[in-house]
Structure formats: structure tokens, C-alpha cells
Amino acid sequence: MKIIEKALKEGRNTLSEHESKQLLSLYSIPVTREILVEDRKDLSGAVNEIGFPLVMKGNSSSITHKTEEGLIEVDIRNEKEAGASFEKIMAKMEGRGDGVLIQEMIKGQRELAAGLTRDPQFGPCVMFGLGGIFTEILKDVAFRVAPLEKRDALDMMQEIKGHKILDAVRGLEAADLDTLSQILINVGRIGIENEQVKEIDINPLILAGARPVAVDALVILTP
């Protein structure tokens, strides 16, 4: 896998958000539409292609906590705001990244999380649970050893305490369980087919209506 090989060759054990999502896309996992802009002169074209409102994030393999470092700007609604946000993020990155991600803003009230951890005894294990700030607060997650079949994925979804978040509630449509199942199956496939992948963290995985979309992702490698 070229993305992984390139990172390891550069002495990195972490993929940037953009690289992580490129890897997920290769396994048919839905991710945000986004363009990486390295130079201010390319900003206008990227903004027009993605469309407002949009999100901008500093893209770096060495910065994993972008929110804490002030590297995320959301709900940007015009060219002037986009220009100011680009300059602000680039200044705060201080040369530690390779540009700014111009990203579609996914609207959805329900945040999930999916991922992978490589257990020394069992090998790649897939995780599913509540996402956003609730991941660390509630720790409402389920695990399965890869490879997964569809029934394993569906069982994981019912295993978390907050499983009703996937139902049709308060005017929100039920989550697309087929797509969610396929995401969990394919996360397991990434772990099985790429021994260098140590961890995958997809959080949040936002339900845009019924459709799950990976809004942020981090892949950690081991040489």
C-alpha cells in the first residue's frame, strides 16, 4: 500500500488525516469530500469546488489533537472567512504540516466511532461505539476480532448501551445499517491486509441523515 510505504519510508508512524481518509476510501469507507491546499493561491478553487458551508483543518501527521491546538475552523460561509481561516491555521501549524484541508461540512446530530486495534494475542480487533466527546466519557464500545461477517457487525451495533441512537428517533431516520456493517467489515480488512497498521480511529463517524460519513480519521503504523 503506497500511502503506508511512503509514511514509513519518511520515518513516520502516523498518517495525516488526509492520508488516513485516502486509505479508508481505498476500502470503500465513505469519507468527507475534501481538498488539501498547500498554497494560498489554490484556496479559491478548492473552496468553490467543495462549496459553503465548509470546515478547514490543519493537515499534519505530527499533530493528533487539532482541536486543542486551534487548527479547526467550522461553518465557514464565504471567501473572506475562508481566507482568514487559512492564514490563521497555517500560522498556528508553524511548518509542522503540509497544508490545510478544505472539507465539506457534514450536518448530523448523531456521532459514532469505529476503529481498529492490533491485540498482541488476538490480532486486529474492530471497535464500534458512540463517538465525539462521548467516546472517552462513556466508553460505550464493542469489539470483535477480525475478520467480521455482517452478523458480527450487526451484533456489535446492538451490544452498545446507546444502540437506540441508530433507530428512527425524534424525526431522524434510522441509520443505514448495511453501510455501517460494511464499514466495520472493511476496517477489519484493512487490519488483516496491512500488517503495518497498528490502530485506526474514525471519530466522529457522523450520520448525515441515514448515511454514515467518516469526518475525522487517524491511522497509526508500526514498522
Written account of the structure:
The protein is globular. The mean pLDDT is 96. The chain starts with a helix and ends with a strand. It folds into 2 domains: 4-14 and 107-221, D-amino Acid Aminotransferase, Chain A, domain 1 (2-Layer Sandwich), CATH 3.30.470; 33-104, Dna Ligase, domain 1 (2-Layer Sandwich), CATH 3.30.1490. A hairpin with a 3-residue loop joins strand 5 (110-119) and strand 6 (123-130). 33% of the residues lie in helices and 28% in strands. Helix 6 crosses helix 7. The strands form 2 sheets. Strands 5, 6, 7, 8, 9 and 10 form a 6-stranded antiparallel sheet that branches. It has helices at 2-9, 17-26, 43-50, 79-93, 134-138, 150-159, 177-193; strands at 34-37, 54-58, 72-76, 100-104, 110-119, 123-130, 141-145, 197-208, 211-214, 217-221. It contains 7 helices and 10 strands. The chain has 223 residues and is α+β, with helices and mostly antiparallel strands. The longest helix is centred in the C-terminal third of the chain and has 17 residues, at 177-193.
Q: Which CATH architecture of the largest domain is right? A: 2-Layer Sandwich
Q: Structural class, from helix and strand content?
A: alpha+beta
Helix proportion? 25-40%
If you average the pLDDT, what whole number results? 96
Question: Could you give a short description of this structure?
Answer:
The chain is an alpha+beta fold and 223 residues long. 33% of the residues lie in helices and 28% in strands.
